[in-house]
């Protein structure tokens, strides 16, 4: 009977959750779900020096936010728990000593001073640093004497000196390592804590992990893991090493060159659908030029053998485009509700949003989502609808020719006789308007009637109106501004600008 597929991610709670964790989690989830298996979360928190308070909860929150839901984990339980390594601590020492008894590992009593001198000597000789196997030759009597004397020790893996260890990687084929070039890895430290290698292998075995899907940076460690499986007499999982996310210069993605915190992307207003879609494109292709898809579509289409090893570039421009596509596809009410916290952050709305305000926000979001890349950008670009006090733009040295000409025309328009006449007539029409609100069609009608009565082209009439209503040479359609801010605010803006610039 074929084993049920079980995959996992095992992040360490050492800071903000990393985009790389979400990337690897996505592919583990997709592989498990597309094969009728289970995807689990394990927290590897044995490195207490790097542990960060609150980081574990942030991992839970980030994965749940993205929809990367695991069948088992510290916060959801499961029959293979506990799912925190700190709660499994008692297991690792027992397994390390069992390995010593079976001849697959040994006690090492070398002091830090000896190891430092060994490293310096190897460096001076141009050799790769590594343990020299000094304690492998100790007799059982010597070992017992040292143990009885209470000498501190570590337990090391006994790597074979001869032959090769071969990784049968699903994506990369066979990767061959010469055993005599692989260090005798420390498995259990002097303080009794396991190293990553021991805890990882013991936990994967006890949790029934059938496929280890992880980043390619772990390839160099995999021969040690394979030897551990062999030493214990356990069946090893299938290894699948994913391509690393990279910066534009092909280096491994890092916070020095790219934001790597999932919290940052959420706080910037990226949709979970946009991030998942973008991460799915990292090393995977649907074919037929399909670039926009949902998490479920990704899972339904998924085939691990189609992963490309080219080294995906984490391109924020591409992420912005992908996120924009999902903002445009999303239900407008849902998108508006997601955007409201960003409007609140800028002080544009209060905690309690009125029905009238919400109606205006829906229209603002509907307009700005066409070009904005994030929810935060929608809020930041909505200034024209919220700030009634503004200045006309001025020409600056960094403007290109087109921008300079546009600003000059805007400023000239309010001094032009036709511009002044247009402003006067429009104010007259607004003051005669009996309501404070406009529908989109009513706003269009009042603008068109002004244009017809003046009898000039749209640029001559609408440019000065734009100047005194928005202070912008281009941007929001005037009928949308009227619809959103209403009659009173429009009149107040116009009269303020007329006085400020001595227009009439």
TrEMBL record:
EC number: 6.1.1.17
The species this protein was found in: Fusobacterium necrogenes
UniProt-listed PROSITE patterns: AA_TRNA_LIGASE_I (PS00178)
Motif ('KMSKS' region): 252-256
Species lineage: Bacteria, Fusobacteriati, Fusobacteriota, Fusobacteriia, Fusobacteriales
Location, primary (coarse class): cytoplasm
GO terms for biological process, alphabetical: glutamyl-tRNA aminoacylation
GO molecular function: ATP binding; glutamate-tRNA ligase activity; tRNA binding; zinc ion binding
Reactions that this protein is recorded to catalyse: tRNA(Glu) + L-glutamate + ATP = L-glutamyl-tRNA(Glu) + AMP + diphosphate
Protein name: Glutamate--tRNA ligase
HAMAP family noted in UniProt: Glu_tRNA_synth_type1
PANTHER family registered for this protein in UniProt: GLUTAMATE--TRNA LIGASE, GLUTAMATE--TRNA LIGASE, MITOCHONDRIAL-RELATED
UniProt-annotated location(s): Cytoplasm
Family to which this protein belongs: Belongs to the class-I aminoacyl-tRNA synthetase family. Glutamate--tRNA ligase type 1 subfamily.
Residues the entry annotates as binding ATP: 255
Superkingdom of origin organism: Bacteria
């Amino acid at each position: 009977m074929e084993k049920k597929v079980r995959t996992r991610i095992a992040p360490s709670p050492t800071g903000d959750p990393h985009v790389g964790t979400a990337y690897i989690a996505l592919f583990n989830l997709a592989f498990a779900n597309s094969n009728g298996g289970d995807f689990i979360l394990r927290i590897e928190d044995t490195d207490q020096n790097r542990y960060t308070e609150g980081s574990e909860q942030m991992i839970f929150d980030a994965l749940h936010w993205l929809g990367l839901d695991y069948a088992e984990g510290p916060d959801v339980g499961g029959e293979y728990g506990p799912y925190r390594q700190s709660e499994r601590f008692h297991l690792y020492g027992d397994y390390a000593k069992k390995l010593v008894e079976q001849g697959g590992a040994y006690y090492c009593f070398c002091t830090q001073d000896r190891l430092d001198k060994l490293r310096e000597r190897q460096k001076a000789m141009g050799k790769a640093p590594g343990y020299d196997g000094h304690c492998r030759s100790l007799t059982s009597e010597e070992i017992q004497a040292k143990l009885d004397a209470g000498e501190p020790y570590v337990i090391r893996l006994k790597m074979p000196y001869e032959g090769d260890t071969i990784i049968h990687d699903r994506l990369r084929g066979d990767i061959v390592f010469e055993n005599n070039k692989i260090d005798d890895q420390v498995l259990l430290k002097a303080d009794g804590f396991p190293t990553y290698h021991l805890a990882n292998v013991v936990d994967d075995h006890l949790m029934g992990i059938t496929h280890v899907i992880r980043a390619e940076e772990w390839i160099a460690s995999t021969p040690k893991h394979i030897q551990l499986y062999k030493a214990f007499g356990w069946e090893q999982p299938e290894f699948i090493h994913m391509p690393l996310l990279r910066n534009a210069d092909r280096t491994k993605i890092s916070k020095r060159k790219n934001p790597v915190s999932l919290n940052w992307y959420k706080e910037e207003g990226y949709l979970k659908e946009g991030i998942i879609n973008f991460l799915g494109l990292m090393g995977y292709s649907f074919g037929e030029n399909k670039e926009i898809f949902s998490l479920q579509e990704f899972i339904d289409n998924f085939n691990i053998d189609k992963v490309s090893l080219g080294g995906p570039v984490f391109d924020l421009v591409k992420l912005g485009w992908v996120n924009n596509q999902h903002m445009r596809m999303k239900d407008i009410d849902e998108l508006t509700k997601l955007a409201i916290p960003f409007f609140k952050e800028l002080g544009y709305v209060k905690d309690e949003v009125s029905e009238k305000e919400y109606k205006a926000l829906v229209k603002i979001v509907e307009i700005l989502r066409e070009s904005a890349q994030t929810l935060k950008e929608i809020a930041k670009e909505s200034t024209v609808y919220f700030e009634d006090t503004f200045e006309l733009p001025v020409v600056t040295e960094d403007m290109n020719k087109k921008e300079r000409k546009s600003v000059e025309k805007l400023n000239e328009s309010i001094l032009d006789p036709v511009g002044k006449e247009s402003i006067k007539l429009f104010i007259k029409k607004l003051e005669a308007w009996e309501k404070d609100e406009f529908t989109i069609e009513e706003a269009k009608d009042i603008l068109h009637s002004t244009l017809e009565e003046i009898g000039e082209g749209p640029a001559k009439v609408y440019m000065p109106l734009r100047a005194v209503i928005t202070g912008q040479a281009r941007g929001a359609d005037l009928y949308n501004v009227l619809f959103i801010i209403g009659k009173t605010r429009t009149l107040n803006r116009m009269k303020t600008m007329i006085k400020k610039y001595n227009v009439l």
